[in-house]
Amino acid sequence: MDPFAKLLASHRSLTEDTWSLLADRGVNESTPLVLDYRYEAENRKNGEGLTGALIELSDEVSLVRSGSFFRPVYTVTGTFQPRCFDKDSLVGWVEMMCLLGRQFESYFDGFGTSVPESLL
Fold it and tell me: Out of 37, 63, 82, 104, which could bridge 46 as a Cys pair, Cβ 3.0 to 4.6 Å?
């Protein structure tokens, strides 16, 4: 299995497990979720390209350079505002995020989710 296929399979499995945990806590396809995501970009050019693509899709995006002068790390993070998902659409979103990362030679590190405070 090539590395990208392995990454995709891992993210699918983790997302299905995440959905099960969310469902156990009362989340369903009518519950809006906020999704926060994170990528590691190969270099500044790829980080900037990925950031530009994500600006078209999400509400908040940032590119941060860290690490040393000789070994910089480019991290792209952002947030999708509340939207409803079912298990399949959440897995589809994760697959799209992985493919977008691949397009810009960046690693989709994963996502976090929360329910908007106004619904708690």
Answer: 104
Q: What is the pTM of this model?
A: 0.90
Weakest mean pLDDT among 4-8, 45-49, 75-79: 4-8
Residues in the chain: 120
Distances (CA, A) of 35 to 20, 58, 93: 16, 10, 10
> d(Cα 119, Cα 100) in Å, to the nearest integer?
31
d(CA 64, CA 84): 29
The tokens of 5 are what? 């296929």
Sign of CA dihedral 103, 105, 111, 116: negative
3-24+33-114: CATH architecture: 2-Layer Sandwich (3.30)
Can you read off the two tokens belonging to residue 12? Answer: 């699918």
Residues 107, 97: Cα–Cα separation, whole Å = 10
User: How many whole angstroms separate alpha carbon 102 and alpha carbon 115?
Assistant: 28
